[in-house]
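Let's practice the habit of predicting before peeking. Look at the sequence and jot down your guess about where helices and strands might fall. Then scroll down.
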Amino acid sequence: MARDSTATKQRILDAATVEFAAHGLAGARVDRVAERAGANKQLIYAYFGSKERLFDTTLATHLERFIEAVPFDADDLPGYAAAMFDFGVAHPDLLRLLQWHTLERPGELARMEQNHQSTRRKLAALAEAQAAGRVDDTLPPAELLAVVLAVARSYDDPAPTSVTARRASVTTAVRRLVTPGPRP
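Done guessing? Here is the structure:
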C-alpha cells in the first residue's frame, strides 16, 4: 500500500507545532513529535533533515497562514494591528512558536523567503504612504513597521484586564503613531 506522504508530512507539522510551541527548539523532542504524528523518527528526518529544519519549516508554514489571514494595508495600520492582535488571541500557540523561533534561531526569520518578500512589500507600501502624507513620516518605514508589530503583539504582556480593552489600546496606540499632523 502506498504511503500518503502529504498527509504524513501534515501530521508531522501539526505535531511539531504543538511540540515547538510548548517547548521551543531546545526543549522539543523528535520522539514526542513522532508519537503525536503517528510516524517514526527516521521518517521525520527523511522528510525534514534535522530538528532545526523541522522547526523552520513549521514556522514557515504558519507564517504563510498568517500572511494570508492578516492582509497588510499601509493606509489602515490601526486595522492591521487590530487584525494581528485578533490573530494572536485566536492562535496563541502560533505566536509562542514565533517567539521561540525568534529566541532560538535569531536571524532565520528574516532569511525565510516569504517573510522577506512580505516585509519588502510592507516597507514599500509604508514608504509610499509616508511620501503621500497619509502616514506620519517621523519614523523610517522599517522602524515604523517594527513598532507597529511590537504593539500588535502585546496581547498578553502583561495580561490585559480584558481582551477588548487591550485591542482598543493597540488600535489607539497605532492610530496615534501613524496619523500625520502636529503632535500634542
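How did you do? The domain at 56-178 is CATH 1.10.357.10 (Tetracycline Repressor; domain 2).
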